[in-house]
Design goal:
about 500 residues, mainly alpha, 21 helices, 2 strands, globular
Length: about 500
């Protein structure tokens, strides 16, 4: 068993069970143990990252069964980046939840948090489509509980929409998996790639239809047009640390498109090669524009942040749809940026919500927040990064994607959408900042705005600092993302590594 591959999955599973049994010991004990588990998980994912970036693949055969007959977990450059990103995000979200007492608002918060990480990490590591479905269901079940944590009418209604849409997505997932298994005879991603290469002409239509249906399923998870309507309400009305953790949820769908479609329908797939690319690109363009309009139309800050996250999904879909190593490298860089900065904005929106009393985070004139210079400065830096303005990481990511699109036939449409959507979002967040920090009404003589929780605010600062770090270390990080993109496009090596892995004790 490969420890770098096993630990990111085993730690959250064992941690969730442990935290369940620790409930009688009290919330403080759960908090200490949970923070310790997250710290160990960050270390484990760092080890996995450095191990994967040696250039090869680490294959774990569960049950010691050779692929494609057994369950396979695959650690490579891309999955290691996603594991480290998830652990980093989780540490900030958990710290904020503890310091604001969000974890006290309902039952089993810490258990569900760990099970969510178990599902996420499993989805990033699995080497077959059926177990991708299994891990999707685990993370979705945990997310249902986290979304509703604390209760409330708006949260319950948003949660109901979220559950119904994802149940429909899960049903379609089974239909697609069944069709693919019926034709290809396998659900191991590497083995499916080989089967598609040798597919008879009469079966191509069914496989193409099933592959596009699978794209629809991943589009639901990624909040791709026209399947994004669940996201703004679900993210806006859940608790802030849960919304921050959910910033990685849409990236699971994007990762699945890259991993499954990029391998099964890669350049070796003959007539079915890259059947998904144009659909993804078109959906990305539409998603970006509609998200920008959503940012303009939002009446509360949390909903506006949700649309900003949706806009980043649109940009990532465009990069994936460009279907080149340079575009995929840029997408990986932009994905790290948008996930961490989006999470920080959700947490900051909660700080503002708590500080404005009855007005909450409604985009109307209200009494000023405490420490307006600090909170306003952090807000300005975060929206600069999220809207893609220089000199922070969002600008670098968008420039890299546009540079990769220069030779694409759709370049003018891509350029127009990126520039116009960016301009609309900049105008909107400028208006928001003015309402929140400059157009405040005079407070009552006895009205003193509550001070921000400094320890909780540290989580926001920590996530924010990743943006300048992504800029300062852009060159070495770009080298990492370029190597990752090259490895992802080299589907032959992936297939060979998975199918040639031998059980322990068996001679090669």
């Amino acid at each position: 068993m490969s420890l770098p591959t096993a630990l990111p999955v085993l730690l959250p599973l064992v941690g969730g069970i442990l935290l369940l049994f620790l409930r009688p010991a009290g919330i403080q004990t759960q908090r200490v143990v949970h923070l310790s588990l997250i710290f160990v998980l960050v270390i484990a994912t760092l080890i996995a990252f450095f191990s994967a970036n040696q250039g090869g693949y680490e294959i774990m055969l569960l049950g010691n069964w050779q692929a494609p007959f057994g369950i396979v977990m695959v650690l490579d450059r891309m999955s290691s980046i996603m594991l480290l990103l998830t652990a980093t995000l989780a540490s900030g979200a958990l710290w904020y939840a503890i310091k604001t007492d969000v974890d006290r608002q309902g039952e089993h918060f810490h258990v569900l948090f760990q099970l969510q990480l178990f599902g996420l990490n499993g989805a990033f590591l699995t080497g077959d489509v059926f177990n991708l479905f299994v891990f999707f269901e685990i993370l979705l079940l945990a997310s249902y509980g986290l979304l509703l944590h604390g209760g409330g009418r708006l949260r319950t209604r948003a949660g109901l929409h979220y559950v119904v849409i994802n149940l429909v997505g899960s049903t379609l997932f089974l239909f697609a998996v069944g069709a693919l298994y019926g034709i290809l005879g396998t659900l191991n991603i590497a083995d499916m790639s080989v089967a598609v290469q040798n597919l008879p002409a009469e079966d191509r239509g069914v496989v193409a239809a099933a592959g596009l249906l699978l794209l629809v399923v991943f589009g639901v998870k990624a909040a791709m047009f026209p399947l994004y309507l669940w996201l703004p309400r679900a993210y806006a009305y859940t608790s802030a640390p849960v919304a921050a953790l959910f910033a990685i949820m849409t990236k699971v769908g994007l990762y699945a498109i890259i991993r499954v479609h990029g391998t099964v329908f890669g350049e070796e797939a003959g007539a079915l090669a890259f059947i998904h690319s144009d659909w993804v690109l078109a959906a990305g363009l539409i998603t970006s524009m509609l998200a920008a309009l959503g940012v303009m139309a939002s009446s509360v800050l949390r909903q506006q942040v949700a649309y900003l996250v949706l806009a980043s999904v649109g940009i990532l879909l465009i990069a994936i749809g460009l279907n080149s190593e340079a575009a995929l490298s840029a997408a990986i860089y932009y994905q790290v940026h948008s996930t961490l900065l989006g999470a920080a904005l959700f947490l900051l929106a909660d700080v503002i919500f708590r500080a404005r009393g009855n007005h909450g985070d409604a985009l109307v004139k209200a009494t000023p927040v405490a420490q307006p210079i600090l909170v306003g400065s952090v807000f300005m830096l975060l929206v600069i990064a999220m809207t893609g303005m220089p000199p922070l990481s969002g600008f670098f990511g968008k420039i890299m994607i546009l540079n990769a699109a220069l030779t694409h036939p759709w370049f003018m449409a891509i350029l127009l959408v990126v520039l116009v959507s960016g301009l609309l979002m900049i105008i909107s967040v400028a208006r928001t900042g003015s309402l929140l920090f400059y157009s405040a009404v005079k407070p009552e003589s006895n009205g003193i705005p509550p001070a921000s929780n400094r320890l909780a605010f540290a989580a926001i600062i920590g996530l924010l600092m990743t943006s300048p770090l992504l800029v300062v270390f852009a060159k070495p990080l770009s080298a990492v993302t370029e190597h990752t993109a090259v490895q992802l496009y080299d589907s032959r090596s992936y297939v060979s590594a998975v199918l040639s892995a031998r059980p322990v004790g068996e001679e090669r």
